[in-house]
User: Which sequence fits this backbone?
């Protein structure tokens, strides 16, 4: 009797399990939410970067207004009249922030472009110049990478009298090693290609081989590296200016704005640091996203994702 009862109980449990399994959905419908593709995200980032560059061009025209004082509108909180508020001298913080971003973008473009050209020249020379040239340039790259960027940047900027030229030269001379290493690796890869060896056997010079075969292969990585250098240049310009070794205190720079705001945060004037800081972070993250998106699109392994 006991065995038959246990058998009936097991059968009932099996029947209930099979019924529950039949009620469960066998095929799961895919989610209707669509994940944006990388190409769409990249196109959005490029459009936002183009708008930002247009705003930066507008900011150059606003630089004279950024230093105009209005003693009747001192230390005002954000409002419809002054969206970013005003400082202790009555400067409109929106105008001053846009002018500061324009100056940072201009410095970033010049410094990143000059640094990228240095990286291209040294990386190509290291790969095509023989063992001694390669050893010397590799040693120089390792030496530059062993020194913190901000320390060397401060020393170069201070030695050149600080200011606009000192910051641009300092950033250009300190940010090329990583890109130079990438260029060297790409050139070494294409150097051993059969068509390059055939060109050398046909009597073409090293300069002709570099111009016709090496540079077109290296160009995508070079463009990506140049774009990725830009946010670093902007961030380091603001950092060295914040520490007092960059642009002059009279200029409307993001680093100067943030440095001055430190004295008034305890008085409740939070808008002096929040809005310029968010604008600087937004610029850096936006151009970093553009560079990363371009890097993914130029990589054959992830271009179709």
Assistant:
């Amino acid at each position: 009797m006991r065995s038959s009862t246990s058998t009936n109980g097991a059968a009932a449990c099996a029947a209930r399990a099979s019924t529950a399994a039949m009620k469960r959905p066998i095929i799961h419908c895919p989610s209707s939410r669509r994940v944006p593709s990388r190409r769409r995200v990249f196109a959005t980032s490029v459009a936002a970067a183009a708008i930002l560059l247009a705003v930066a061009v507008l900011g150059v025209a606003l630089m004279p207004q950024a230093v105009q004082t209005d003693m009747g509108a001192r230390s005002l909180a954000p409002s419809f009249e002054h969206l970013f508020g005003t400082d202790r001298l009555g400067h409109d913080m929106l105008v001053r922030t846009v002018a500061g971003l324009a100056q940072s973008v201009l410095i970033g473009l010049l410094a990143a472009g000059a640094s990228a050209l240095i990286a291209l020249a040294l990386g190509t020379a290291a790969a095509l110049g023989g063992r001694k040239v390669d050893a010397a340039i590799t040693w120089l790259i390792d030496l530059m990478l062993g020194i913190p960027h901000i320390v060397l940047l401060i020393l170069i900027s201070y030695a050149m009298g600080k200011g606009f030229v000192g910051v641009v030269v300092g950033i250009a001379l300190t940010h090329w090693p990583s890109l130079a290493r990438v260029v060297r690796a790409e050139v070494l890869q294409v150097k051993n290609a059969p068509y390059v060896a055939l060109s050398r056997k046909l009597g073409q010079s090293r300069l002709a081989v570099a111009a016709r075969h090496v540079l077109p292969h290296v160009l995508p990585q070079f463009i990506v590296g140049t774009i990725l250098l830009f946010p670093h240049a902007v961030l380091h310009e603001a950092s060295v200016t914040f520490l007092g070794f960059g642009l002059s205190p009279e200029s409307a720079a993001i680093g100067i704005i943030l440095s001055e705001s430190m004295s008034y945060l305890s008085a409740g004037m939070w808008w002096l640091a929040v809005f310029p800081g968010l604008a600087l972070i937004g610029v850096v993250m936006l151009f970093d996203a553009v560079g990363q998106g371009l890097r993914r699109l130029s990589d054959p392994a992830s271009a179709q994702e």
